[in-house]
Amino acid sequence: MDLEKLKEVLKDESKYRLKEARDFVFVKFIDNWNQATSFSKDLRDKLNKECPLEIKADVLTSRNGDSIKAKIILKDNVEIETVLMKHKDGRNTVCVSCQVGCPMGCLFCATGTMGFIRNLTVDEILEQVVFFNRHLKKTTLSEQSESNGLNRVSNVTFMGMGEPFLNYDNVLKAIKVLNDANAFNISIRNISVSTCGVIEGIEKLANSGLQVNLAISLHAPNNKLREQLMPINKRYPLDKVLKAVDDYILKTKRKVMFEYVLIKDINDTDECAKELVELMHKKLYFLNLITFNTVKGSQFQASSNNRIETFKKILKKEKINFVQRYRFGDDIQAACGQFVTGK
Ligand code: SAH
Ligand code: SF4
Which atom of ligand 1 sits closest to the CA of residue 294? Predict the structure, then answer.
């Protein structure tokens, strides 16, 4: 899909045409301008030529059908991955990428092994949500799901490839369109951004007034271990990240989610759990335990169920607010940290 020339193609049309055209793409989810029936045949042909709507993608569906991964091929032939997760309660969450690859190089993450290729444009971020909205529109055609909004993407998480705060402006612009009642109309409280701890980004978000959910990839309860797993901790050490989070909470009064991937014999010990308790004992801090998802060639393994239970017991005893994240799509390499392209 390429909307770059949309404005230019429509410059001689009435001023409502642009709004109408965006409505066709971002609300009605047409996949060919021929479906824009209120446009003249000439205009439709021109748009199909200059602003094609086709999204090139390879699609994989998980065994139980609850998650679908799309590898989208962009116009410079680089690829990104995005996943739709269908929850039992009717929510449809899309996990979007914001960069091709990622420069942060976290050792446990498949995207991290790719290095950084480039930032995504606003349209390329939106295209991922458009893709799944088209898919949902085609697969759930009943009138009832239409009226319940069940055939729409209801939640978006910036937890795919890349670090959102290294592409801050485009991510924020995309969020505004996702939230726009005249576009995707996704509630701002259903949009989440996850960062490995880019402090400037946390500060900017706090001042933006935007009520999105903030998640922090923590993964270790002290600098020494975090530095080994996440090289970026040298630049943004734990205490400074947490200070930025506390300022964010002070300003926004919003809760913050901390993500902690349990890796066998690395960060899943009783000592780590106890250290984590010390960090998490704060109002509006919320912990999300994630099972480690296998990454090809990785030196790490997932913690055993027994170990996870013991770890959780320590947290429970100390009354830490936490949940264990349900694992979507690990059989199609579509779970957290498994996004990788070009290999
Ligand atoms: N760059 C951002 C957002 C993308 S990563 C960030 O790091 O927060 C989305 C989440 O998946 C992060 O919490 C990340 O740490 C986690 N993750 C990375 N590799 C993983 C793996 N192998 N198993 C489980 N989660 C992983
Ligand atoms: Fe980048 Fe996030 Fe993966 Fe780290 S965990 S390499 S920041 S995508």
Answer: 22
Phi, psi dihedral angles at 284 (to 5 degrees): 70, 5
The CA-atom distances, in angstroms, between 193 and each of 84, 154, 156, 258 are 16, 15, 9, 11
Residue 339 lies in a domain: no
Rounded to two decimals, what is the model's pTM?
Answer: 0.94
Specify binding-site residues for [4Fe-4S] cluster. 102, 106, 109
Q: Determine the average pLDDT of the residues in 267-284.
A: 97
Whose atoms come closest to the Cα of 100: which ligand? Answer: 2
Q: Which residues are annotated as a binding site?
A: 102, 106, 109, 162-163, 194, 217-219, 293
Of ligand 2's listed atoms, the one at least distance from the Cα of 162 is 8
Same domain, 157 and 69: yes
Question: Which residues are catalytic, by number?
Answer: 81, 336
Domains of the chain: total = 2
Angle at which helix 122-139 crosses helix 168-179, to 10 degrees, equals 40
Q: Determine the pLDDT at residue 329.
A: 67
> Could you tell me the residue range of the domain that residue 18 belongs to?
4-50
Mean pLDDT over 94-118 rounds to: 95
- Residue 332 predicted with pLDDT over 80: no
Distance from residue 109's CA to the centre of ligand 2 (Å): 6
Residues 19 and 130 placed together within one structural domain of the fold: no
Residue 18 lies in a domain: yes
